[in-house]
Write a structure and sequence with these properties.
423 residues, alpha+beta, SH3 type barrels, MgtE N-terminal fold, 7-stranded mixed β-sheet, 17 helices, 18 strands
Length: 423
């Protein structure tokens, strides 16, 4: 490990790619696993929690790590693909040590842990050597003073803390994509998960909920007070909110729908009225919809919205008034590739593809898959018998319904991604 830095900070390690000896990426770092015995002896780092293909989390022993530098981690390539299960004697650095309230023994200063450093001991084991502590903000300061001290110079790192905050863990999660943040939240101990959920803002929690398994979604939503649960559901895409509400007890579902804004609740109720695994149940009622008098420039401005998924941004749906679903008469779709080739000042109606058949809301999941495959589409319109646009089915909607409910926990076929072998 000649190029490995003498000291590595855990928060900076999270998210780094993990490579095998051939240079193929096999995963990403999500946490460190340590064995804490006392506040006097430096905890030994047992290994990394790595996320591999399919958002599966595995344990990578430090004996398999050959090099760590500023931007990547290298391993021997021999990884055990069993799903990581935390033992009672193990502690997660990011998940459980960040935000702990501690006291610096010599000065008596109280603060919270915002990072932890590890380094190699003389016997080549990795150990936690230093703790970064931040004091509470005072006066007009936005952030309190920080200290980096030896592990043994801090008290409060051992044992359970009843009221552990989540500020620094939230900061780490906010740097991740929603799917990655969901994976980390899924693996947190119950108390830490509750603290994180309480600290996340509604929009971010909605993004994360959409990426969690159904069991986690229900557990988290039922733990929220009804007002906040309704606010979070409003921030979710209507199709995801409908799927989640359908998994709740009927009386709970009615309470939450009654607390939601009427327009948001109406969209969700409409989606819930369709049979499961049909185009109507899978679709989103909020694709990019424009009138025929809109220009190409208008259309391109709408699809540039960073909150749109790539599949939703691939097509513009042109309809008569009203433009809220169910719309007026559906006229056709405009592909983004066609829009990019046309002068911005021309009307979007001139770039329509009106020759492609639409899906009916009762179309089965197999019919939706065949339709997308036949026309090489990543999205398709769903239209009722009167020619009104009801919404759009995207390929990610389709995959969410075609994959088994526990697909995130399943081991990938063929032993995993390139360069990963069962060890």
């Amino acid at each position: 490990m000649s190029t490995t830095p003498a000291r590595v900070y855990a928060a900076r390690l999270v998210g780094l790619p993990i490579f095998d000896p051939r240079g193929d990426q096999v995963g990403k770092v999500r946490d460190l696993v340590v064995a804490i015995r006392s506040e006097e002896s430096q905890p030994r780092v047992l290994g990394l929690v790595a996320e591999v293909f399919g958002r599966r989390r595995i344990f990578v022993a430090m004996t398999r790590v050959t090099n760590i530098d500023s931007g990547q981690v290298y391993t021997t390539g021999l990884l055990n693909m069993r799903r990581f299960e935390q033992r009672s004697t193990e502690t997660l650095v990011i998940g459980q040590l960040l935000d702990r309230t501690v006291v610096i023994k010599e000065s008596g200063v109280t603060g919270t842990v915002y990072d932890v450093a590890m380094e190699q001991a003389r016997n080549r084991d990795w150990v936690l050597s230093r703790v970064a502590v931040q004091e509470p903000a005072k006066g007009l300061r936005r952030r309190g003073q920080t200290h980096v001290v030896e592990w043994r110079d801090v008290s409060g790192l051992v044992g359970r803390e009843e009221s552990q905050g989540a500020t620094h863990l939230i900061a780490a999660l906010n740097e991740m994509r929603p799917a990655d943040a969901a994976s980390m939240i899924h693996d947190l101990p119950f108390e830490r998960r509750a603290a994180v959920v309480a600290a996340l803002d509604d929009e971010r929690l909605a993004d994360v909920l959409e990426e969690l398994p159904e069991e986690d979604q229900v557990q988290i939503l039922e733990a929220l007070d009804s007002e906040r649960a309704a606010d979070v559901l409003e921030e979710m895409s209507p199709d995801d909110a409908a799927d989640l509400i359908a998994d709740l007890p009927p009386e709970t579902a009615e309470i939450l729908l009654g607390l939601m804004e009427p327009e948001e609740a109406e969209d969700v109720r409409r989606l819930m009225s369709y049979v499961d695994d049909t185009a109507g149940a899978m679709m989103t009622p909020e694709p990019v919809i424009l009138g025929p008098d809109a220009t190409i420039a208008d259309a391109l401005a709408h699809v540039r919205n960073p909150e749109l998924t790539p599949a939703l941004a691939a097509l513009v749906y042109v309809c008569r008034q009203p433009l809220e679903t169910p719309t007026g008469r559906f006229l056709g779709i405009a592909h983004i590739q066609r829009l990019l080739r046309e002068p911005p000042s021309t009307l979007v109606a001139g770039a329509l593809d009106d020759s492609m058949a639409s899906l009916r809301p009762e179309a089965t999941i197999d019919q939706v898959a065949a339709h997308l495959a036949t026309y090489n589409l990543v999205a398709a319109p769903v239209v009722d018998e009167n020619g009104h646009l009801l919404g759009a089915v995207t390929v990610d909607d389709l995959l969410d319904h075609m994959l088994p409910t526990n697909w995130r926990d399943r081991m990938p076929r063929g032993g995993g991604p390139l360069g990963v072998k069962d060890g």
